[in-house]
Amino acid sequence: MQFSMSLPLLIDPAERDPYRRTFELARIAEEAGFTTVTVGHHHFMPGNLADPLTLLAAVAARTDTLRVGTGIFQLPVHNPVRVAEQVAIIDQISGGRVSLGVGTGWWPLEYQVHGSDFRQRGARMEEALRILKHVWTTEDTGYEGRFWSFPDLTVHPRPVQDPHPPLWVAGVADAAVRRAARLGDAWLCGPVQSLAKAASCLDVYREACAETGKRPAWILRRYAWLGTDRAQVARDVLPEYVGGLMEHWRESAEDDAEKALFARIDAGEDVSAEEIARDRLLWGGPEDVVAQIRRYAAETGCDHVHSAFGGGLPGSAAQASLGSFDEIAAMVRLFGREVIPAFAEDTGA
Fold it and tell me: Name one GO molecular function term (predicted).
């Protein structure tokens, strides 16, 4: 089992090193045994990063073995050749430790401002993924496409990883899941969707992989809150955390199950935080989280779980995650001390 995590964006604008606490969390994650940290991407939201690739370069320079990635980068909004250049530089800085997780996003304004078209986001994603692979694996060649065209050229620097940095493709619509199978190296699942929805998407993904002769590879993303005592988490944290998550999910709800959940709430039904969290979050004490991951693995066969500790709150907030530096650092260390080793024992490692 691999474990990765979202890197919370903790900024102190008045400090000489405003991102110091974020960098420190990356080092703590590396020490705890996480394989990868990821950062998200949104424009015009104070709690999100307009340029996650710049931050990842800084994280890569401050770590030794930890992989860095985006989760997700809104690829159709931007010129893929420019993105290829930026990611290749991070690949060199890190010695081959970068992955690019991509998705289409949900906010038309980001497309409009950057000269893209939200209505064409699926087609733009397809072409952009092809261009990334093209410029990373060929030299002195051009491209003629629907959205982007360029003459013969070679992108410099060249990426370290062969054939190229891994491309993780997100999405829950059938077309997006099939795109991940055709053009991605892995599919990013969740984190909003219930386990039942994830399982139905997984059926689509595996079928599409079989059609192309590709081995399925996917990452199950879950929001998380880990404490030493389940009852304390349920009483003091879960209602506030789930409430914040639901506010954000309203902005981006895509599938029928999530829409049905909101319809129940809007009709006045008292849906408990624990019911909402049951199939969507990792939460409670270490033994609870170990059991939840084992259940996910048994029901889906997942072998890579991505945790977002306190993550997923509305991007309009200055900090789009719940918890102080000390609380998040404690969760990361506790996960590394008591959750990750449980799965090493399962495999005899």
Answer: monooxygenase activity
